[in-house]
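Can anyone check this?
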Amino acid sequence: MKKADTKKTAAKAKPRIRITDTTLRDAHQSLWATRMRTDDILAIADEVDQAGYYSLECWGGATFDVCLRFLRENPWERLRQLKSVCKKTPLQMLLRGQNILGYKNYPDDVLERFIALARENGMDIFRIFDALNDTRNLEMAIKTVKKYGGHAQGTICYTYSPVHTVEKFVEIAREQVSMGIDTLCIKDMAGILSPAAAAALISALVKSVKVPVQVHSHMTSGMAVAMYLSAVKAGAGAVDTAVSTMSGFSSQPPAETMVAILEDEGYDTGLDHRKVAKVNAHFRALKKTRAPASSGSMESVDADVLEHHIPGGMISNLRSQLEQQGALDRLPEVLEELPRTRKDMGYPPLVTPTSQIVGIQAVLNVLAGKRYEMVTQETRDYVKGLYGRSPAPIDSKLVKSILEGEKRVTCRPADLLKPGLEDAANDLEPKLIEKEEDILSYCLFPEVALGYFKWRAAPAEKRDPIPADVECGAAKKADPDGQQAAGQMPAADPGAGQETARYAEIGRLVAGLASRLGFAAGSAQAAMPEPAAAPAAPAAAIPAPAKPAGPAAVEGPTINAPLNGTFYRSSAPGKPELSKEGDSLKAGEPLCIVEAMKLFNQIKADRPLTVVKFLVEHGAVVAKGQPLAAVKY
């Protein structure tokens, strides 16, 4: 070829925009409560691998927890099997920085070993974020991913407020670049990044940092497609999409639509249209059995998110929980309160776990009748600095009121944690451990992992039913034609189908209001849990909630369950019981725990009392109002 012809060919080359597919993780987490099975994925994995994507987001987020808890699957095995099929396309996961895949900070030794095993089992790209954009919470994860040869993608959690400026985001990006990130992602978790704001932010980042920029968004507000095009024109080199069946609502923009737009604008995506269509057909067929019955009532666009910034799945679940407590009419007040609470707390971006912390506190501010009269333990820890630095200073009066003279944490929060692997290994029965990865699963989700290990070790004929199968059966039995009314969920899992894998913990918000909302007389006021003692529910079949015992079942005063959940006498496997029969407790001392949709609520004595007798077994499912213990005042 002549030199002139070479130049002409180069001039005609289209700029390449890379597409990350989220169908195997965020899309079904957003739309199907993360209920996609490994077999569902493997049945189409080869076609996905051949479609021409830049990467496949398939792990992290809520998938790990849900595999163990609801699907009775080993998430590590899912990763291995997917990697054995996907030879061409890099696999990608979402890692919550020092939170790993949970809702609290974990020790450095747990974080490092988790990343090492994820790499060993096939993970290529780690998208690492911190809910507060506190780069101290990212540094260890970035360093470790690079140490083990992975691709470290830094992340900016996008939001807007008086302190979230383009200049501030550029500063955060530069800090992450100095830590060694390979690429940078703008994570627009609520779908509130406008096309104009995207153009300004991406332009500034492209000029200021020398790493490729990717954009992730959700269709919650309806702006994401237009925003993606604006971001690409400003210099973004990659965007996140899902196949059309798994797109929209609170999921990502549709791949097919974005490809058509980008190609018409003169860009090349490298996607094979026929392969993408075949993949979409697979999920269209799968939708009949995996989509929750309530999904038909989901709104296409939630423009209110532009005001309150709460992701769509959390709003759905918040609405459901308020309805269960007879307070659905207070939802407008809660949504008005949210921006005020967020301002008081220093304008944190609203993504796990800050979305839960701010959302729950806003609800309590409304339902309690006085702002901050009741404060969750997570709010206390946030104000103390145990989650990291707030973007803006927290209201000084709020700090003084909550901490009551206690000093705030100014160091990296994880520096306060002792190593955790050895203790976890010592807690487990050797016969339950098949591989080292089991110890990591236990570190992250103690009760869930332990329940799964026991289920796995049992003979097939003696295993309890798979919880996800139980909930599907309950849904079909209650609603055989799939016409379940909006807002009504199967009895087996009140939060299923409303993105419970990420946001179901909002159900615990009413625990602290037990006595105020008319729960049984004499019940203790439920206090919010400390993050360090937050195991998840045991992996067992999910029966329908037990019926509350009648008033004549027990003589004398009782401590009653403030909400539906699971009863525990200790905070984690191997830990001592919070109280024993015959113990005398002072007001405020913990009696037991009621777990509700993944998070735990310590039930504390409302006044001095003696524990006479526990009325339910450790690990039993209980219903709101059911007596848990007989006491003597």
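Reply from J.R.: I decoded it. Confidence is low (pLDDT under 50) at residues 474-552.
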